[in-house]
Amino acid sequence: MGNEKVLEMKNITKTFPGVKALDRVNFTLKKGEVHALLGENGAGKSTLMKVLNGIHKRDEGEIIVKGDPVEFENTKEAQNAGLAIIHQELELIPHLNVAENIYLGREDKKGIFINYKQLYQNTADVLEMLGVDIDPRAKIKDLNIGSQQMVEIAKAVSQNADILVMDEPTSSLTNQEIDILFELIERLKEQEISIVYISHRLEEVFEICDRVTVLRDGQFVGEVKTAETDEDQLINMMVGRTIEDRFPEMKFNPGEEILRVENLAVPDKIIDASFLLHKGEVLGIAGLMGSGRTELAKAVFGVYKEKTGDIYFKGKKLEINSPADALKNGISYLSEDRKDEGLVLGLPVADNISISVLTTMLKAHTFINAAAEKELAQKYIEDLSIKTPSEMQLVKNLSGGNQQKVVISKLLSTKPEVVILDEPTRGIDVGAKREIYNLMQELVDNGVGVILISSELPEVLNLSNRILVMHEQEIMGELDAADANQEEIMQLATGRRNQ
Amino acid sequence: MNNLSSNLNKNNILEVLNKFKTGIGLLVLIIILSFLSPYFLTIPNLLNIVRQVSIIAIISFGMTMVILTGGIDLSVGSMLAFSGAITAGMIINSGLNVFLAIFIGLAAGTALGLFNGIAVAKAKLPAFIVTLAMMTIARGFTLIYTNGRPISGFDETFRFFGAGYLGRIPVPVVIMFLLLFVIYILLKKTPLGRYIYAIGGNEKATKLSGINTDKIKIAVYALNGFLAAVSGIILTSRLNSAQPMAGEGYELDAIAAVVLGGTSLSGGSGGVVGTIIGALIIAVLNNGLNLLNVSSFYQLVAKGAVILLAVFLDRKSQQQ
């Protein structure tokens, strides 16, 4: 690692309607270094990178790439300057092969035809340089996520990129794939390629990063060398307060058994899951992305047709073959993806809240009771303090936190006795998070059994009384939240069994 | 403060204009045509227009519901012909009572629609493909059943539905407005209607809200088949003949009416009031151009241009 700066971002400010997403942020990247960009959800990491490659226009500040001030109008220009971003969602074409993807739009031609011989040779060269063992003729759809990511990186390198931004590259990788990725990163460093590594996994940061820049609420908190810091300091910088005030002091009052799952299995999704849930408790489910947490919840909620095993509700065996069956029996599920699975964005707040209970409030057994529907919507708008001009406002015009409250209102309208919350605080601001935590306490106080799925370990640790940890479609173990810690959870989540 | 309220008023007016833009378009068209042709704005001519529009309008209502769920149905023209032929055959060849024959014709159309619905909802096949296949299959059935020849010569009872009058109003027009009212209420006031909009807006979310989305979609396609059958029976009655090639190309007219009426092709927003106005715009345009002695070749071009222009303006207004 030299001392030459390949990228400098100075005093970057970016305002969106109503929010200052970035406030005088600084970031520098040296040649051949791996520099971590750390911060909580909404801290401004992604926005900063979007300002860098021209997707967002900055309001103020300066960007200097290899000594020249730049103003990228679009990603193409950023690419030409040697900048490449590997996104969390990979942008490859599944039905084309590796070589065709890497050289898409830049194919060697013989007359009007693609020179395939040359194409495969070039691809093989790039892959070999990176020490990646992938067949250039393999179709992308046949590769696992880890290999697809390698292809994405190879594509960037083949475009002579010397500044790579990796946005949460390990979020959907297995341990083994992560090891291969880290080896590749080491080789990229040797080629004097500089890497911006966005992650919130501290252990990875300490493993491969040279320096760390921390952002919080759109502001630059500090820049430190990894060798001169520790996890506690970084967490403090990220959170800006001690962990204790982020969460309410939860009080549990576990009562009788309300949900018992025995040997639940779904082909390709869940292997033999068994667990218990009591009234008045929060059962946390931790695990890496893709470990089967969401699938387990959905299996209980009746989303999958093909499944084996038994589900008991208050000791009575249930046949749950659809979400409708689950809701009828008092089991409700909040999806991790509110836009895709939670809301009908083009319909009003009231319609979204009432949809699950519409048929329980009919006039003349046929017509929607508009007055009752309005009353229901207004009750939840008040109870959950949903900020909306009226119950007839379209949901798409609400902020993330308020949209989430609308989905939760829909859940509560069914008067559930078991509530499964899948990433309930994803992408919402700190205030709304706190309100959702308080709501969980309220549910517990009312004897509801709550299952909490979250990628944020502190959330699982602080809000649950018991924790299940999943790894590759299996429940690896159960921990008592009171004396569990992040390391213990991570060990199980990465496949090491409880000793 | 004054400024603010006048601003608000201006916004309100714009909003109202935007909401009724299809109706305003129709009105403008009517005003222009009534200046261009003295015959246009006469009661007989207007009744003629609504009678002509009734066949397409009724299938457009079904098409509106299908499109609201995010689907499409290309088989309405063929289902219309099949139901008409079955009804005619039951009366003429089998000598059945007219009402029983109509019942069988309606059941036939509903059954074809039901099949479409099951293939789309349960077998998860794309609606475009399923109904494209049904378009050919139902047409084939019709030709097999009729041996490729028209079935004609009905009594007064059957002729009433297509050619009769209630006072001065043609019966098909009465049926059309009745169905418009029923489907409007269904879409706006019943859970089924709400679910139709919800499925078009976000099917996954609707399913996870505990709604049996498959059942709703099947019902919508079946209802669409039923409405195609109603149209087929009216057409057969009006022409006094069931033509094996009846209703060819009607699916495109119906889709055009739905789109002109402001229903989004991706589903989730729109409604039947817009659709009837859309169907009327096409009918008024055809009628006006006829009165002005414009050749039917040019009429085709004009119709296409109007559809393109309307959808373009709709997009523009939505972006703002």
From TrEMBL, chain A:
<dbReference type="GO" id="GO:0016887">
    <property type="term" value="F:ATP hydrolysis activity"/>
</dbReference>
<dbReference type="GO" id="GO:0005524">
    <property type="term" value="F:ATP binding"/>
</dbReference>
<feature type="domain" description="ABC transporter">
    <location>
        <begin position="7"/>
        <end position="242"/>
    </location>
</feature>
<dbReference type="InterPro" id="IPR003439">
    <property type="entry name" value="ABC_transporter-like_ATP-bd"/>
</dbReference>
<keyword id="KW-0677">Repeat</keyword>
<keyword id="KW-0547">Nucleotide-binding</keyword>
<protein>
    <submittedName>
        <fullName>Ribose transport system ATP-binding protein</fullName>
    </submittedName>
</protein>
<feature type="domain" description="ABC transporter">
    <location>
        <begin position="253"/>
        <end position="497"/>
    </location>
</feature>
<keyword id="KW-0472">Membrane</keyword>
<keyword id="KW-1278">Translocase</keyword>
<keyword id="KW-0762">Sugar transport</keyword>
<dbReference type="InterPro" id="IPR027417">
    <property type="entry name" value="P-loop_NTPase"/>
</dbReference>
<dbReference type="Pfam" id="PF00005">
    <property type="entry name" value="ABC_tran"/>
</dbReference>
<dbReference type="InterPro" id="IPR017871">
    <property type="entry name" value="ABC_transporter-like_CS"/>
</dbReference>
<dbReference type="GO" id="GO:0015749">
    <property type="term" value="P:monosaccharide transmembrane transport"/>
</dbReference>
<keyword id="KW-0067">ATP-binding</keyword>
<keyword id="KW-1003">Cell membrane</keyword>
<dbReference type="InterPro" id="IPR050107">
    <property type="entry name" value="ABC_carbohydrate_import_ATPase"/>
</dbReference>
<dbReference type="GO" id="GO:0005886">
    <property type="term" value="C:plasma membrane"/>
</dbReference>
<dbReference type="InterPro" id="IPR003593">
    <property type="entry name" value="AAA+_ATPase"/>
</dbReference>
<keyword id="KW-0813">Transport</keyword>
From TrEMBL, chain B:
<dbReference type="GO" id="GO:0005886">
    <property type="term" value="C:plasma membrane"/>
</dbReference>
<feature type="transmembrane region" description="Helical">
    <location>
        <begin position="20"/>
        <end position="41"/>
    </location>
</feature>
<keyword id="KW-0472">Membrane</keyword>
<feature type="transmembrane region" description="Helical">
    <location>
        <begin position="53"/>
        <end position="72"/>
    </location>
</feature>
<feature type="transmembrane region" description="Helical">
    <location>
        <begin position="165"/>
        <end position="187"/>
    </location>
</feature>
<dbReference type="InterPro" id="IPR001851">
    <property type="entry name" value="ABC_transp_permease"/>
</dbReference>
<keyword id="KW-1133">Transmembrane helix</keyword>
<protein>
    <submittedName>
        <fullName>Ribose ABC transporter membrane protein</fullName>
    </submittedName>
</protein>
<dbReference type="Pfam" id="PF02653">
    <property type="entry name" value="BPD_transp_2"/>
</dbReference>
<feature type="transmembrane region" description="Helical">
    <location>
        <begin position="255"/>
        <end position="285"/>
    </location>
</feature>
<feature type="transmembrane region" description="Helical">
    <location>
        <begin position="297"/>
        <end position="313"/>
    </location>
</feature>
<feature type="transmembrane region" description="Helical">
    <location>
        <begin position="127"/>
        <end position="145"/>
    </location>
</feature>
<feature type="transmembrane region" description="Helical">
    <location>
        <begin position="218"/>
        <end position="235"/>
    </location>
</feature>
<keyword id="KW-1003">Cell membrane</keyword>
<keyword id="KW-0812">Transmembrane</keyword>
<dbReference type="GO" id="GO:0022857">
    <property type="term" value="F:transmembrane transporter activity"/>
</dbReference>
<feature type="transmembrane region" description="Helical">
    <location>
        <begin position="92"/>
        <end position="115"/>
    </location>
</feature>
